[in-house]
Amino acid sequence: MSLNDFIKQLDDLVESASKRFEDAINQTDHQVLEETRVEFLGAKSGKLKEAQKGLGKVAKEDKPAAGKRFNEVKTRLEELFQAAADVITGGGKKGKAEALDVTLPGIRPRLGHVHPITQTIDELKDIMGRLGFTAVEGPEIEDDWHNFEALNIPLEHPARDPLDNFYLNIAAASHGGGNQLLRSQTSTVQIRVMEESQPPIRIVSLGRVYRPDEIDATHYAMFHQIEGLLVDTNVTMADLKYVLRLFASSYLGGDIEIRFRPSFFPFTEPSVEVDMRWQDTWLEFGGAGMVDPNVLKAVGYDPEIVTGFAFGLGVERLCMRRHGINDIRYLYDSNTKFLAQF
Ligand code: DAH
């Protein structure tokens, strides 16, 4: 092919392209514009691509001139397309990025949401608040005194075993240089509250506790408990059962039955395991009992004058039961697809 023929072919291409892009502008039609773009600039079989083949057929010495011309035409076609696109999308000369069609729906910002455990904590606080219990907090780094001693758990008790607790390698700040640890239970807060106030007491405390348990579907090294404490005159186990039943019914829905099974905790006497009946099965949710006189004495109360009840339940268990979650690990592996359901 001669250089002249090649150039003539390119000129024809520019001429027909300008007509066709002009048509697209006149029709103000995105579809026509796109078709025109593919017809001329399409990467596979566009007319420009077709013309490029002629480049290989011109004589060797004409190649530089032919190539230069080809590149000019390519730029020209791209300009024609861009200009038509700008007019059709209403962006004028400024280009695509600033073209704004105010009639299109807006882009919805993605909102985060509250974690199911935090939702559960908020709801449990609300329920207990309606029953007259004030929500209080306690530290997650505790000392021997609040986690064990004052709760009537003596030094030789297996619950204090280093293998069952996260002891910290730092010096204790209070109570005679004992150990510090990540608290293994929220019962610590009972002591902190009673040390600082006088009966009547009616509190709940919800928060994290830590145990070096092997992780599986029902165990995690960190979980949450709800701790309740009521101290007053003439408190009985009937009060405890009534409060727990109201609590369970409010959270799980319907009239939930409560079952007490005899148990042992150093800080309550008598002690019970608390089961709730859920769809014909009894499920264990935690422990409870009447506050042990030794605990009342440890904080300077007179067990001859006041009595109290306490309970500690697993927040994850409640949340999992209510939502039908069957593996605690789902709650903590930060999979937003899972968490977004709640
Ligand atoms: N602290 C106990 C635990 O973590 C649960 C518990 C049992 C709390 C009896 C109480 C209670 O307040 O009275 O296993």
Q: Care to describe what's here?
A:
By secondary structure, the protein is an alpha+beta fold. The chain folds into 2 domains: 3-91, no CATH class; 116-340, Bira Bifunctional Protein, Domain 2 (BirA Bifunctional Protein, domain 2, 2-Layer Sandwich). The protein contains 12 helices and 10 strands. It has helices at residues 3-27, 30-41, 47-55, 63-88, 116-130, 144-147, 188-196, 237-252, 293-298, 315-323, 329-332, 336-339, and strands at 134-135, 141-143, 166-168, 180-182, 201-210, 222-232, 258-265, 268-278, 281-291, 307-314. The strands form 2 sheets. A 7-stranded mixed beta sheet has the order 1-5-6-10-9-8-7, sandwiched between helices. Helix 1 (3-27) packs antiparallel against helix 2 and helix 2 (30-41) runs antiparallel to helix 4. The protein starts with a helix and ends with a helix. The model has no long low-confidence stretch (mean pLDDT 92). The structure holds 3,4-dihydroxyphenylalanine. 3,4-dihydroxyphenylalanine (DAH) binds next to strand 9 and strand 10.
Break the fold down into its secondary structure elements and pairings:
Blueprint: H1 3-27, H2 30-41, H3 47-55, H4 63-88, H5 116-130, E1 134-135, E2 141-143, H6 144-147, E3 166-168, E4 180-182, H7 188-196, E5 201-210, E6 222-232, H8 237-252, E7 258-265, E8 268-278, E9 281-291, H9 293-298, E10 307-314, H10 315-323, H11 329-332, H12 336-339
Parallel strand pairs: 1-5
Antiparallel strand pairs: 2-4, 3-4, 5-6, 6-10, 7-8, 8-9, 9-10
Helix pairs in contact: 1-2, 1-3, 1-4, 2-4, 3-4, 5-10
EC number: 6.1.1.20
InterPro entries: aa-tRNA-synth_II (IPR006195), aa-tRNA-synth_II/BPL/LPL (IPR045864), Phe-tRNA-synth_IIc_asu (IPR004529), Phe-tRNA_ligase_II_N (IPR004188), Phe_tRNA_ligase_alpha1_bac (IPR022911), Phenylalanyl-tRNA_Synthase (IPR002319), tRNA-bd_arm (IPR010978)
Subcellular location: Cytoplasm
